[in-house]
Amino acid sequence: SSIPGPLQGDAEVVCVCVCVRSRMQSVAEQGHMALLGHSLAAYMSVLDRERLRRLTTRIVSDTTLWLCRLFRYENASACFHEDDRDGLVKVSRLVLHARYEDYACEGFAVLSPRQPVIYQSASCRPGLGQHLCSQLGLPLSSLCTVPCNTVFGSQHQMDVALLEKLIREDSEAGRLPLLLIANAGTPGAGHTDKLGRLRELCDQYSLWLHVEGVNLATLALGQATSVVTAATRSDSLTLTPGQWLGLPAVTAVTLYRHEDPALSLAAGLTSSQPVEKLRALPLWLSLQYLGHNGIVQKITHATALVSGAREPDPVEDELSSPVVLFKFSQDMSAGKSLWPGLGEQLARLVPASGVDVVELEDEGTCVRFSPLLTAAVLGTQQQDVEALVERLAELLPVMNATVALRAEFREEARRHAPSLCYVEELSWPGLGVVRYEPEAEGMDEGRRKQELQKIQAELLKKLQELDSDIVFSAGPEFGPEEDCIFVGMVSEDVDVPELVLTIASLGREIEESGRLLENMTEVVRKGILEAEQQLQQASMDKLMEEGLLRQIPVVGSMLNWFSPVQSSIRGRTFNLAAGSLDSTDATYATKAQAGRPSFQDTPPSSSKKLPGQRLFRRSGTSLDSASETGSVGHAEDPTPHAPAEPAEPAEPDTARPDQSGVSPEQQEQEEQSPR
């Protein structure tokens, strides 16, 4: 059904079925308004050109005015774009037109005498500078990445002193400092650069200052910080109201200040086509639906959620960023691989929290909670934040115990080599990874791999059926290691030697049972052939012993009645375990199968597991002492025993029948009878 057929000649009713395998995000009422705007834009595009021009001009001017007043960026123009990086690309093209007078006529030839230089922070979005140079046709040598602070201030802020030094060196080398990209909320930690100091530096060296980041949303609040408020003095900034307000498929907006409309048109910031201006219609409808109070309430709610998530110790945040980061305080070499797993578990346990895992250069792997980017879309509430903090407090002790026991698990697994192989998988957020290695003598590579997959699948199934709190899995779906047992996080009271021994023992049991089943067919076939041969030989012996007349139906019955014959032929039993044919004499003599142990003789299985205790758990000292005390109490009974009564005299043996139930006369008669 997925293969498209030929296009039908006549019109027909089309039914579109969309299968969504993953969980869909809930679309609020303002989201439906945004989706409605896309449909209206398609209908409005068929209006006559003059009416469409007037309508789109009104939509763009209204939306621009509302955004400028809402985010304190007065006297600016707006560019609406689908990709949130396109606004920066068009602004950079505008600066090229403004700084190189003949750029519109001669193009890139005018850039050769003085190569333009674009500066960005090391904390900028990954790949932003490369995308910018690719779209502008500039070499990567035109991109200068400024390191962040290493001594004073936040380690996620641009080093202003080093930036000034780089600008001065480029100017002295004959290059043209063109544009500076600053952050009002870095993608990782949410920290804001020193925008006031950067503004002064840009004025001194005639650079265009562009600001972007999630913290720009707080400009709509009445109590915005002075660090973020300094962004209103920039030359341009990019807003993403769709993420902040939970509006699906809404364009990003770049606000900029420039007085030459011709250069804005040449850079692509404005368009003379009315249809392209309809991009602002979904945002225009959504802003009116929410109203000023509704917009401020959503941003206020998102920033208020941060205070509830700061109960554990977050990464240092001197700028009160609306982003909370949690990192592992132990040795990063040991806990680094577990932290992504913890973030994934938190996201699965509390999906409305919107937490994710980020990799920072200085802090390493962290769990990020950024409600400004997720709260409006996921509908995050205060109880979700409380649940996040509770789950985090529950998982941290387990994570600490897992990190502490990983070395012991590795050593125990290596002790059981070669049957058990320890796999070094640093990215696995659990106790460790092992693989059971069956004996592969006489097997080719294909047969060995097939046997390995079979044993690993059966071993994983048996481990998952155990009464244990430990999670056993086959690992990530697209992981590098295959046919392995991935052991999840464990608590501090887990018995690692018992755990590894159980894995090795179950694997050996599965391997031996598999070989027994493989050999069973051959054993049974040989046993059947041997039984047929013995039955044929027994028939021939019976014929030679009884004679030919006794084989005739009527004559044989008469002869057997007058002169009974005691046959010397014995039955046979087939032992599957030994693969051999045995006589049934012992079976009829003892009334039980030969070699089968009596149930009374089977020793009771001893188990170290106490009542109510799950597998792989170390028992406490108090429980052990209580168990030992109980066993001693049962061994020595303080109650005095009554004296034994004298036994009655036994009767003569002649008056008592034999224990086998057969009288002496019958035994004597049987001994005299011919066999």
From TrEMBL:
Keywords: Decarboxylase, Lyase, Pyridoxal phosphate
Gene3D superfamilies according to UniProt: Type I PLP-dependent aspartate aminotransferase-like (Major domain)
Domain PDXDC1-like third intervals: 411-515
Biological process, per Gene Ontology: carboxylic acid metabolic process
Cofactor(s) demanded: pyridoxal 5'-phosphate
Compositional bias (Polar residues): 599-608, 619-630
Coiled-coil region list: none
One Gene Ontology term of the molecular function aspect: pyridoxal phosphate binding
Region called Disordered, residue ranges: 593-675
PDXDC1/PDXD2 second domain boundaries: 342-403
Family membership: Belongs to the group II decarboxylase family.
Protein name (Swiss-Prot/TrEMBL): Pyridoxal-dependent decarboxylase domain-containing protein 1
UniProt organism field: Salarias fasciatus (Jewelled blenny)
Gene expressing this chain: pdxdc1
